[in-house]
Hints:
Layout: E1 3-14, H1 23-32, E2 38-41, H2 47-59, E3 64-67, H3 71-79, E4 85-89, H4 90-98, E5 103-107, E6 132-137, H5 145-159, H6 162-165
Parallel strand pairs: 2-3, 2-4
Antiparallel strand pairs: 1-4, 1-5, 1-6
Amino acid sequence: AVSLAMSSPNILVVHPSLPVKSTRELIALAKARPGQLNYAAGTIGAAPHLASELFNAMAQTHIVRVAYKGTGPSVIALLGGEVHLMIAGLGSVAPHIKAGKLRSLAITSAKTSALAPELPTIASVLPGYESTSVLGIFVPAKTPLAIVNRLQQEIARAVNKPEVRDL
C-alpha cells in the first residue's frame, strides 16, 4: 500500500414506494416487518454490502440482502422496485434522486457532507455508525522504496490541493 487517495461517504436511498422519509422511520418499519424489507448489494464485502449489514446490526433490524452483479444492476433493481433500499455511492444514484425516482434518507459519513449538505447522517439516529468508500494506491511487492516514497509525496501533494481536497 502506498497511500489513501480518497474517502467518500455513501448514501442511504429508498424506492419512493417505501413509506419512509427518514432513517428513523425506516428502522421502525423494518422492525415492524422483520425479514420483509430488502436491500440491493453487489459484491460480498464491498462497501454497499458492509454498510448495509452494519446498519442492520446497529439498528437491530433484519433487512434482507438481495445479491446483484455490481452497483449498476443494483441501482436498476432499486429503480424498478425489485428491492426497497440500497446504500450506494452518491455518484451512482444522484441523477435518480434529482429526478425523483429515488428518495435519499441519509449519508453514511460520521459528519454531514459537502457532497449532500441537506442530508442528515445515519449516525444522528445510530450513534457511532460510519461507513465510507475508500480508494487506495497500491504497487507491486518489491517496488523500490524510493519509488514508493516518491509516489506517497506526489499523491499527498495532489490530494491536498484545495481544488482536489474540496471536491
